[in-house]
Write a structure and sequence with these properties.
alpha+beta, Immunoglobulin-like, 4-stranded antiparallel β-sheet, 5-stranded antiparallel β-sheet, 2 domains
Amino acid sequence: MASVSTSHLILFIASLLIAASVAGTFTQGVQRLSSALGDRSVDVSSDVRTDVEVISDPGSDAVYDNSSETLTLLVKNTGSRDLDASPDRMDVLVDGRYQPNVSTTVVDGSYWRVGNVVRIEVGLGSEVADGDHRAKVIVSGDEEVLEFRA
């Protein structure tokens, strides 16, 4: 009779050890998943809070200067967080081509706060042909397009 209770005790202890190891594995997996989701939600929150609008008038002569081969865009921060107005923090594409020669100036302040406007000047390096063109500005994942005629 003692051998039966000893074998039952050994099986009970073995099942407790197996259950504890399975529970530990699940807990660790859930913690890793929770941490990854938390990190991702911070990134998504930052992207959601970023919003810009191109407020340049595409019908005016102020957008493209043929003599200096310069494209000038006015971009307003309409999101809910301040942005960095450095040229290396934004991407500009004209007719689908990346433009490396970009300079920025905050028009109404010293920092690109919510509601402030940035003047983006793009040195194109060559004359733009007559017709319709597209300029795309990408800031922290937010993309805005301006269609203009040269």
